[in-house]
Design goal:
With about 200 residues, this protein is an all-alpha fold. The chain has one domain (about 15-195). About 75% of the residues lie in helices and about 0% in strands. The protein has eight helices and no strands. The chain has helices spanning about 10-15, 20-40, 50-75, 85-105, 110-125, 130-150, 155-170, 175-195. Helix 2 packs antiparallel against helix 3, helix 3 packs antiparallel against helix 4 and helix 4 (about 85-105) packs antiparallel against helix 5. It is globular, with a radius of gyration of 20 Å. The termini are far apart.
Length: about 200
């Protein structure tokens, strides 16, 4: 009789392949690389706008799927090695896109964009990377990016950016609801309690 050396289905379901185990880290790291690539496209200027839009949307997708993959494949651990730096990498990504728009003078003048980046970096450093400050600047940056891209080219915004953002929200609606109605309110109420004398 030939024995099968495969583990039982119950044991096999707990074994995570190295690819699945590192997928969240790969996606998080790729977002940082995409952000730096977008920043480097500043040298090309407005001619790289479509490439930047596509890269920014891919970067946004990695933000959705790195969390999903961590929650699915890492189970109890739920946070990958780079997952603890997710908010910092998100901010790097958003600031790189704002820098591209600023250096390329797309809607915002260089001074305004670089001023925002300087203010964000100063606040992040002075707050010692507190999550509330990071999330505040990330959220404000994303809203600013949506407004700027809508003002710059409404056709690209209406045909590409808005549908992609809506699809991302729909795909990740449970996470969006959690962030808006549970995570952010708790985060900021705890912050206000810590600020009061």
């Amino acid at each position: 009789m030939i024995r099968n050396n495969r583990p039982s289905p119950a044991v096999e379901s707990r074994i995570i392949s190295p690819l699945k185990e590192n997928l969240a880290d790969f996606l998080t790291l790729s977002r940082a690389i995409i952000g730096l690539t977008i920043l480097s496209l500043s040298f090309i200027g407005k001619d790289a706008y479509i490439a930047v839009v596509i890269l920014a949307l891919i970067g946004g997708a990695t933000d959705i799927f790195d969390g999903k993959s961590a929650r699915r494949y890492l189970r109890e651990n739920r946070q990958s090695r780079l997952g603890k730096y997710d908010v910092e990498i998100d901010n790097l990504f958003v600031l790189c896109v704002i820098a591209y728009l600023s250096f390329s003078e797309i809607v915002i003048p260089k001074v305004a964009g670089l001023g925002w980046i300087g203010l964000a970096l100063m606040a992040i450093v002075l707050s010692k990377g507190r999550a509330q400050i990071l999330i505040l600047f990330e959220t404000a940056g994303v809203i600013a990016l949506l407004i700027i891209t809508g003002l710059y080219n409404s056709k690209i915004f209406a045909l590409i950016i808005a549908p992609t953002v809506i699809a991302g929200v729909l795909i990740n609606y449970k996470r969006v609801l959690y962030l808006v109605f549970d995570y952010w309110p708790k985060l900021y109420s705890n912050w206000q309690r810590n600020i009061k004398p």
